[in-house]
Structures are given as C-alpha cells and as structure tokens.
Amino acid sequence: MTLADHRREYHRRMLRDIIRISRDAKRKLEYPNFADSGNKASIAIAWAIVRAIGHEIQAEPLAGQTSGGRFEEITRDFLEATFRQLLHIRPGQWQYSTPFIISAFDQYSQLADLERIIKSNKEFASSLGQDYIVKPDIVVGRLPLSDETINEHGLFVNQEEGVAQLTPIRLTNHARQQAMLHASISCKWTLRSDRSQNARTEALNLIRNRKGRAPHIMAVTAEPLPTRLAALALGTGDLDCVYHVALPELTKAVAQVENEDQADMLQMLVNGRRLRDISDLPLDLAI
C-alpha cells in the first residue's frame, strides 16, 4: 500500500468508528462530533472536512469515553502499518503500544523504583506527587540489539574486550530485555485549553525525567479550529510537532469559511513548522 492508501484507510476507520453527527435540539443544530457546538466556525470547518474526506458517517451513537480510545487505536494501527514499510531507512525491532507507562522503558526505568517507594510511603506521595508518572497514549519502542546483529557486517564489539558496556542499544548490557522509548504520541480528539496543557505537561516530564536520549514527543488531533490548535502547537518546542488528521482538508475548509483570523493562524502554524499532516508522522519517526 502507498502512504496515500494508508491515509485513506485511516480516514475511513475514523468515519466508521469515531465520527458521528451530534444534535442540539434547542438550537436545531447538527454537527460532526469533533466540532464545538458553540462555535460557528468550528462547525463549518468540521463539516467541510467531513465532506472532503468523502465517506458516510455512521448513525449509531458512541459511549462517552469511546472516541478517545478508538482514536488512539486507529492512530497506532496507522503508524505501525506505515512505519513497517520504512524499515529499510529506519531498521530495528519496533513495538507499538497504547497506552503504556514510561517506566517500562530504558530511559525512564529509574521511575519504577521511585514509584514503588512513593506507593509505600504516604509522606513521600504528598511531598513529591505523581506528575512524573507519564502514561502516553501511544508509544513506539525499539528493542536492543544482540551482538550478532551489531556484528552482521563484520566484528565490531565483543564481550571479551570490555567496551561499550553501558549503551542501551546492546542487549548484553541489560539484565532483562528492555526497550528504548523512541516516540511518545499524545492523541487529542479535540482541543480545549486544559487538554492542550495536559499534553505540554507530559512532554516536559518526558524531557526532564529521562536518563539518556529524549524520545520523539508528538501530538495528533482532529481539532478543526486553528486558534485552538495554536494552544498546543505554538511555543518553543515542548513537542516536536503537532499533526492534524487531515491538514490539506483543514486548509481547504478554512479557506471556504472565509474566516481571516483562522486562516492567518493556520498559515502561521504550517509555515512555522509547528503543524503537519498525519501522513508526515511516519516519515518523521524515521528521523
């Protein structure tokens, strides 16, 4: 499958499993469930995106918390399917999980001990809190390599010479196999101010609490309003980048509603390299 094929399947699954028509009887409104019923621009842009994607919206309702979980699963499946086709440019053994506690990964293994200590002592819990315990929506982990794999093209390392004994990429340096966190991806079906701040807090904790290489830190969203996307995307780089589920469709939709403020903000986010399309994400993971 081409990347465009994977993207179409991603959108098809969203319309089948997540997107529904919400109704406001008092105001006689119908709108896609990723729009803000109190914002005309949000509703207009969301409808334009749905029309551009071009699949039929399912009729059955969703439970309250269902959309977020399904969004994570569909995005994880898209990343796994596309990244698997890029192994020739980013080789390795990769794991894809949703959700996952970061203390299971090499850079954050020390947090497991801290978590056990805090759970056993209420005074520590009240003093330190638990903000450091991050549970990303989607994680991509890379498994360490055996010396046989490292030496595939000729002898490079061996146990007898006693070198490279601390790097996590060597399986022989682990008491047990422990993956390295390659990417942490936050999935936000829509964005409100509190949701964007939550993603930023997670990103800062991932940066500050690591022992080793920082993972890719990204966010994926279906939020239709560029001014709300800015709450997460603008800044100095807590996150690598924010990815929209349908950026070309969003761009056309914003142009159609003729909202200058939203158009200007969207242009700023894209030209400032803070907002990209979901199709850019698997290739960015290969960096």
Describe what you observe in this structure.
This protein has 287 residues and is of the alpha/beta class. The protein has a domain at 67-143 and 179-285: Rossmann fold (3-Layer(aba) Sandwich), CATH 3.40.50. Helices cover 43% and strands 14% of the residues. It has helices at residues 3-17, 40-53, 66-84, 110-120, 122-128, 147-150, 193-208, 226-233, 247-257, 260-271, 281-285, and strands spanning 21-24, 29-32, 94-97, 138-142, 180-188, 216-221, 241-244, 275-277. A 6-stranded mixed sheet has the order 3-4-5-6-7-8, sandwiched between helices. The chain has a two-stranded antiparallel ribbon with strand order 1-2. The longest helix has 19 residues, at 66-84. It starts with a helix and ends with a helix.
Main attributes of the structure:
two-stranded antiparallel ribbon; single chain; 287 residues; 8 strands; 6-stranded mixed sheet; Rossmann fold; alpha/beta
Secondary-structure arrangement, i.e. CATH architecture of the domain at 67-143 and 179-285: 3-Layer(aba) Sandwich
- Measure the end-to-end span: 21 Å
Write out the strand line-up for the largest beta sheet, numbering strands in chain order: 3-4-5-6-7-8
Largest sheet: 6 strands, mixed
Q: Please identify the structural class as seen in this structure.
A: alpha/beta
- Residue-averaged pLDDT, rounded? 90
Overall, the morphology is: elongated
Percent strand equals 5-15%
What name is given to the CATH topology of the domain at 67-143 and 179-285? Rossmann fold
Helix content: 40-55%
Return the string of H and E elements: HEEHHEHHEHEHEHEHHEH
Number of strand segments: 8
Using the coordinates above, name the CATH class of the domain at 67-143 and 179-285: Alpha Beta
